[in-house]
Amino acid sequence: MSQPIGTVIPTLDGPVLSVLARTELPLTGRKVHQLAAGGSESGTRKVLRRLARTGLVTATEVGASIQYALNREHLAAAAVLELTGLRQRLFQRIRSAIEQWSLKPTHASIFGSTARGDGDLDSDVDLLLVHKFTDPPDAWVRQVGELGEQVYAWTGNHLQTYELSETELAAHLQAGEPIVKDWVRDGVTVLEPDFRSLRARIIREVMPR
User: Fold this and answer.
1) Are 161 and 129 in contact (CB under 8 A)?
2) Listing from the earlier edge strand, what are the strands of the sheet with 125-131?
3) Would you tell me which of 33, 103, 114, 126 could form a disulfide with 41, CB atoms 3.0–4.6 Å apart?
């Protein structure tokens, strides 16, 4: 999920196209190299020149420099934008799947490397699920398991769920568990409320005074 375009384009072309897809502003070859964070500057310039010959990238002389941009009118541009947006597509699919559950959590969010965008092929997709059950019923266990199978089919990465009741979350907050900081800092909400709002409610309603 750090470089989703690399699933299909494992060469330096992938990071270069990802950089250009993230902005509509023209960039110099040096700037593209810096943002791509891979390969050499000369290699990046070779990729840019070759992509410019295909028309997928525009190359415009500005003074002594050449500035590059993704040609969003090109027939292949839609595929590039689709590949660079895979992480958001994953979040949307997980959200859609959870919204169809018969037993919904009170909160769901992605955290960890997938949320930060720095995972690799071996990273898990970490999902926080907060619910109101004392003992989760079989239907809950079944739907969480099905989501794990779906995420693996979508990404090739395993789903790692961190499941807590609201009472257990209150205990985490009271104990100052370090993982709570990850949920606050990195969490990408897939089912409202967001974690900060949930934390405020748990502190107000569930934690002992």
Assistant:
1) yes
2) 159-165, 125-131, 107-111, 188-191
3) 33
Provide CB contacts within 8 A for 171, sequence distance 6+: none
Q: Give 45-57 pLDDT, tens digit per residue.
A: 999 999 999 999 9
| CATH topology (fold) of 4-82 | Arc Repressor Mutant, subunit A (1.10.10)
**Domain 86-205 class?**
alpha beta
Residues 133 and 89: their CA atoms lie apart, in Å, by: 30
Question: Which tens digit of pLDDT belongs to each residue from 3-34?
Answer: 666 666 778 888 999 999 999 999 999 999 99
User: What are the backbone dihedrals phi and psi of residue 26, each rounded to the nearest 5 degrees, phi first?
Assistant: -70, 145
pTM as predicted: 0.78
Task: Specify the domain boundaries for CATH 1.10.10.10 within the chain.
Answer: 4-82
CB neighbour list of residue 109: distance below 8 Å, 6 or more residues apart: 115, 127, 128, 183, 187, 188, 189, 190, 191, 194, 195
- The per-residue DSSP string of 27-64 comes to EEHHHHHHHHTSS-HHHHHHHHHHHHHHTSEEEEEETT
What does the block give as tokens for 63? 């003074």
